[in-house]
Amino acid sequence: MAFPQPSISAYALVTGASQGIGEAIARKLAAAGHNLILVARREDVLMRIADELAATHGVNVEVFAADLSKERDVTALIEHIENRTVSICVNSAGIASFGPFITADWDYEVNQFNLNATAVFRITKAVLDQMVERGSGALCNVGSAAGNSPIPNNATYVFTKAGVNTFTESLHYELKPLGVHCTLLAPGPVREAEIPEEEQTFVDKLVPDFLWTTYESCAEDTLRAMRKNKRRVVPGPLSKAMDVVSTYAPRGSLAPLIGSFYEKMGEEQRA
């Protein structure tokens, strides 16, 4: 049960590939020689990344612009990959909201659920249909350390990420004897290595730089874990601390404390 090697006829599918974790993982996969199918909403950004990776690494890079919060776009992507050999899949696309659920923008909350949960669910099934039949492949779904516990003012996000966490870890055990690697990436806060002072949020200013996980280091940790077929990877010191605290601390006291923190994030987001 080996991790898929680069092949002229196979592709690594990466959603949320226009920025953040998705882009960083796509870059690492291209550097290792894997062809790519890059998925995100912003076609112009994807094209720029695709041109760069193809020129730098000599790989074939396809761009599939799609809003995966929309059922029709997910369906179109699934139909597209029916004609491709997908050896690796990284479901990284996702969004979050902060603030009270009852006063949240309902359309945004529905889109958040569809993107973070429903799209992951459907794309996972589509790629596993291929991988299991071949007896090889690697899947990584991006959940979150936030999915370990209740977080007031982040309810829809933790709803989706708790589902992705347990769904993916359950699949790990199902797929292991079938030859398919399956890893959950459950990060805490991840960001660029350097953030201009004028763009820093109060979280950036509150947490020392050495505790942050960068997108690049997160991608390295994730691919290392996928190659070893680890069930779960939590990259970086801050993420690991959040993972332990959210798993073992008393929820009755932890939830209100974290909820107040997320309430401030919501106020900053709306400002």
From TrEMBL:
UniProt superkingdom: Bacteria
Family matches, as Pfam families: adh_short (PF00106)
Residue ranges occupied by any Ketoreductase domain in the UniProt entry: 10-193
Keywords assigned by UniProt, alphabetized: Oxidoreductase
InterPro entries recorded: KR_dom (IPR057326), NAD(P)-bd_dom_sf (IPR036291), SDR_fam (IPR002347)
SUPFAM superfamilies: NAD(P)-binding Rossmann-fold domains
Record's keyword annotation contains Oxidoreductase: yes
A GO molecular-function descriptor: oxidoreductase activity
Enzyme class per UniProt: oxidoreductase
Keyword check for Oxidoreductase: yes
Enzyme Commission number(s) from the entry: 1.1.1.-
UniProt record similarity statement: Belongs to the short-chain dehydrogenases/reductases (SDR) family.
Name of the protein in question: Mycolate reductase
Organism, scientific name: Corynebacterium stercoris
Gene behind this protein: cmrA
